[in-house]
Amino acid sequence: MTEGIGLVGIVLISHSSALAEGAAELVQQISGGATVVPAGGTEDGGLGTSTDKIEAAIEDADAGSGVVLIPDLGSAVLSARSVLADLAGETTARLVDAPFVEGAVAAAVAAGSGADLDAVIAAAEEARDAAKF
Amino acid sequence: MDTSAFRAWVHEAARLIADNAENLTRLDAAIGDGDHGVNLRRGFQAADEMLDKAEAETPGAVLQTVGRALISKTGGASGPLYGTGFRQAGKALADVTEVDVAKLGSALEAAFNGIQQLGAAHEGDKTMLDALGPAVTAYQVAAEGGADIAGATRAAAEAAERGLAETVPMLARKGRASYLGERTIGHEDPGAASTVLLMRALATVTAGEAP
């Protein structure tokens, strides 16, 4: 990753590969160079989550300043937790309880402005209380 | 139970899950996202195949291999949950080569604790724990009463069945089903149903009845 060095990276974990990729595409536009990596669907392209995909995405998103993981539902949370348990101590990645789209947008804006990991996580979590209109 | 008995358990579990995949999916379609049977069949098939190739030489190594396969290949929430259960059970067995009735009890308890911690569910939330919890308790009661492994695992399988029946009137508080609220009342929990199959496979193998 030449872009995004020194910025917090973002991994978007969804049951649907299309949803993860679409959200990543949307968010990348406003991420100010921070890396946003989708990890959606199972390895064979079905609906579900893949720990292998999540692990690879964390590696791709890591520019040295930490990575936030934003899951959609259910197994996305459990798969991410399993990956983090396996990487214990070897990763700065953290799982965040935030709305998938709004949380990703807030995290990307914060990451792009050079915020540190804790500040990016806080931004994503605060998105839960932001009114849409 | 030696290493080959644990391999036989996994093989029998994979067979039972494949045979019942449609039923599990039907249960999940009623209150979840309808993928439990398909996912778990894929996960256990991968586990069974991985075991064929792996040089897992102890019961603990067999369970850890199964856990890894389930976590990476299943695709749904049941993968990390059962995978963690098998891995924690495998860790509890450490390097033991012949698992006695007490040791298997501690492995089952470790599986329950691992799943409970990962999913943050409690008994009564309409999850696999509602079958696994009663199974572990019944196993331990039987073991303390002097039952052998076959007797204790039979008690566990029967308790899991009763636990599954008790999920019918429950309101789901975890997973996709929790979004459906009251609509989940009146259905068996698919995770509890698959736990029954795993316990039944274990009882079948310890009774020496696996085909």
Automatic annotation (TrEMBL), chain A:
Catalytic activity: dihydroxyacetone + phosphoenolpyruvate = dihydroxyacetone phosphate + pyruvate
Enzyme Commission code: 2.7.1.121
InterPro entries given in the database record: DhaM, DhaM_N, PTS_EIIA_man-typ, PTS_EIIA_man-typ_sf
Gene3D superfamilies, alphabetized: Phosphotransferase system, mannose-type IIA component
Keyword terms: Transferase
Amino-acid biosynthesis found in the keyword field: no
Description of how the protein assembles with itself and partners: Homodimer. The dihydroxyacetone kinase complex is composed of a homodimer of DhaM, a homodimer of DhaK and the subunit DhaL.
Role summary: Component of the dihydroxyacetone kinase complex, which is responsible for the phosphoenolpyruvate (PEP)-dependent phosphorylation of dihydroxyacetone. DhaM serves as the phosphoryl donor. Is phosphorylated by phosphoenolpyruvate in an EI- and HPr-dependent reaction, and a phosphorelay system on histidine residues finally leads to phosphoryl transfer to DhaL and dihydroxyacetone.
The name this protein goes by in its record: phosphoenolpyruvate--glycerone phosphotransferase
Species this protein is from: Asanoa siamensis
TrEMBL record, chain B:
Family matches, as PANTHER family: TRIOKINASE/FMN CYCLASE, TRIOKINASE_FMN CYCLASE
SMART domains: Dak2
Keyword Membrane among UniProt keywords: no
Keyword Cytoplasm: no
Keywords: Kinase, Transferase
Protein name, per record: Dihydroxyacetone kinase subunit L
Coiled-coil spans in chain: none
Span of domain DhaL: 4-204
Domain of life, per lineage: Bacteria
Cited SUPFAM superfamilies: DhaL-like
Any one Gene Ontology molecular-function term assigned to this protein's record: kinase activity
Classification via Pfam families: Dak2 (PF02734)
InterPro entries: DhaK_L_YcgS, DhaL_dom, DhaL_dom_sf, Dihydroxyacetone_Kinase
